[in-house]
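Hi team, as promised in this morning's meeting, here are the two structures we talked about. I've kept the exact order from the run log so nobody has to guess. The first one is mostly here for context; it's the second one we should focus on when we meet again. Sequence first, then the predicted structure tokens.
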Amino acid sequence: MDLRRRDIKDWIVALTLLVGLAACQSNGQPHAASEIDIAALNWIGADIDPVVHLSQEPATCLTHGDLPSVLRGELLFNSPLLLGGQAAKAELSCAACHRNGRGNPDFVFPGISDAPGTADVSNGFFSKLRADHVFNPVHIPDLARAEGRTRVDRQTEGVLETFLRAQIVEEFAGNAPEQETILDLAAYIRALDDRACDTDEARQPSWQDEMKRLRTGADHINETQTAVSIDYINAMRAALGRLHARYQGPQLAAVRDQMVKISRDLAADPTSLALVEALDRLEASLEAFEAYALYKPSVLSQALR
């Protein structure tokens, strides 16, 4: 297995997973506001309703959405560690700006945005390589609509791949990704097309979304064995971190412990045949306790009061 880029990336997700395990409330309430540590809340405007933002996202617009390469690309698209540097520390992934590969009109990042839904892509905070020392935020495009589909040539072989590699290395100062990673990311982005969905429709994010990503990663590990890239391992651990943030409250400590153990096992021995069984057990726990998770608007509303 290629572990050349394990270094700082590993402990970032491990730290994310461990957040919230310490102080549990004893008042019998499912959650306390001090326990809520969902990264997306750090980059929405003050006027945005956090409950609505966390419980609604743009519809998925994918052609060939069941292709393994597209599924793997979607897993990577949601991984902050793929970008590296300051983005990883802030838990920003490609999906932070492009939710479900679409846009994010609620996105506000201090020093990077002016109006909601904008970002200064040449700001030196993420990378000095493209810093122009001018505050010039631009509209974040919906990658499924024509504005996003035509911004970069998706048809000519290699053009999109070259663009994605430059985005990671130059715009975010991340490590150069392996070719397999770039090919899967490109497959996902090529599959984004607003003609494949009702663009006005919103969907509710769920634990099933993250479990699907984890299953995709597990399938890839089982197929590639010792050749699996660290990018996929990191993406799986990031998915576990997002689940961990949504399953807060004292009665969910055992579920979080399962997530932490899987994350540690992924770091130690990702090719273990026990991974699928561990995900089976986690899925059963997630389903059993979903009524308490911060995916339900009513639970979110109570937790954020």
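And here is the second protein, the one for discussion:
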Amino acid sequence: MKRGQARPPRGEAHSAHRIAASLHPARRAQRVTGQALTAAAMAVLAVTLLLAGCGPADPSLTGVALLPAPGASGHVWRWTAQCPFGPAVRQGCSRAGPVLGFAQLNGDAWNLGGAASAGSVDMSVGSRGIVTIEGRLGRAPPCTARACIAPSAYTWVRGYPNVLYGINQCHASTSPPVSRRLPLPMRVDALPRHLIGVTAYSADTSQVTYDIAYDLWLHPTGTKRPCRSEGTLEIMVWTDYDAQALLPAAMQVGTANIPYAADRVARRGTQAWSVYASNIYTNGRTVPWGGTLWFVLNRADIVGHGVVSVDLHAVLSAASLLLQHNYGWPQLGRHYWLDTVPFGVEFGPAGGNSMGSGPARFSVRIFAYCVDVRRTLPQATCA
């Protein structure tokens, strides 16, 4: 969930729809209630183990490597409520996060309100190219001023700091360059048959509501300057999250089979993913700023740390089936272009309250991130 994608308040009624083909009828999930949960600190894997899972491979087979080069280390970029999209500098705010190779460090604190003195979201690159995202916010209220992108977003999400590949929505001129292996935007039916997102990460979540996710953006034209508009489609793919982050059961529209792998062990993903929808209507229509689908690993299957590979091509295929059969949309393959493939963490105050202003303290380390376009899921790796 990003910039302007308003999430309905918890408890708001939504109608569940039938999902055909490889998707299965919706299962009624229990609503998350109760007191705020403080997520236990996750064990941090040894760097050597994580990097071994994304070890050297034949360069002729590699996809798009997206972690910055180690030479970018030694600097910390900070995003605040006053500088939500470009990191703070001495004289104000930068236009956007730094571009490092094919990647951009993107703080994207789109729904963070309050004063700059409340803290910051920091991103840095270590000596081995490892990206660290740290939330150091004593208070994390939502952005409610008229100038905010979504002053009534009704979501616990305050931002989505990420490593971005592709076109930065509504900020195309600040985007990183694209690789010839995956020259976005690309029409969905022209994408490589094997489109595997590979990441290695760990998280320490002391006081925060969070999810760790891909955030795919698609547009109904091949424009190189996409911006959230009628028909824009956002597809989030959650691989880890805490209980307070879970979407309301009324928004669930089914389950899906999405193959994935954890620590190089392939899993078929049969009904392992719950699918949610918001702001999506019939015949390709959405609200004026677009609509959202979520593919969320079930609680028993989430990956808190380690090497995780997800078949993103299967995600797009399942999304296309859902939209066709439930909402009468045209096929994504022939009518939509993939613009952006970021990976990062959505964060908000502990407790998951849309209007909460409590602290948000967390640390996520991304040891590897690439999009492999040449190999199958069990073989996919970051070279």
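Starting points for discussion:
Residues 8-61 have pLDDT under 50 and may be disordered.
The first strand starts at residue 64 and ends at 65.
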